[in-house]
Amino acid sequence: MRGVATAVALAVAGCGAMDVRNDPAPLTVQTQFGRAQACGSGPYVTRMSEMSHRSPAIGVAGLPPGTRSLKVEMVDLDLGGFDHGGGQVAVPAGTGPQAVIPEGALSNWMGPCPPTGSDHRYEVRVRALDAGGHALAGGTTVLTCCRQFGSGRTGQPSG
Q1: Residue of higher predicted confidence among 97 and 14
Q2: Sign of CA dihedral 100, 103, 109, 114
Q3: For residue 41, what pLDDT is reported?
Q4: Does the pLDDT value for residue 72 go beyond 60?
Q5: Is 15 helix (H, G, I), strand (E, B) or coil?
Q6: What are phi and psi of 21, to 5 degrees?
Q7: Rounded CA gap, 154 and 54, in Å?
Q8: Between 6 and 61, the higher pLDDT residue
Q9: Alpha carbon of residue 21 to chain centroid
Q10: For a designed S-S bond to 73, which of 11, 25, 86, 150 qualifies (C-beta 3.0 to 4.6 A apart)?
Q11: What is the CB neighbour count within 10 angstroms for residue 107?
């Protein structure tokens, strides 16, 4: 029995060495949070009742041929990956390697809303999908928000 367990362990370990995933090509994702994307008003104070549902404009570069839509999601990295939603937008046929998702275009978006006086890191993830909904490429950017709104600055990419 011990020999069988060893053989199974070796087989499983060998499988881990194989790369069976089909990783999509990388996309470049650029965006910033403006005051309109954070909750509350005026100098930043957390007000969940004033959560913004207006997504920022998101620039995407490196779109492969055959891209028909862009799927976007945002998670709060400092709150256990809390899902802030996102959405999916169509990309017209013949679009080149760059696209901009217009401000407010994502239908299921909840803006950043960390506790008053603190910053959280938010990861914006974008996937380029083909007509069948299969991922062709993907990319992320991480932004820090929202203490900067107390001083009038805009949300900037972190790192």
Answers
A1: 97
A2: positive
A3: 61
A4: yes
A5: helix
A6: -80, 150
A7: 15
A8: 61
A9: 20
A10: 86
A11: 12
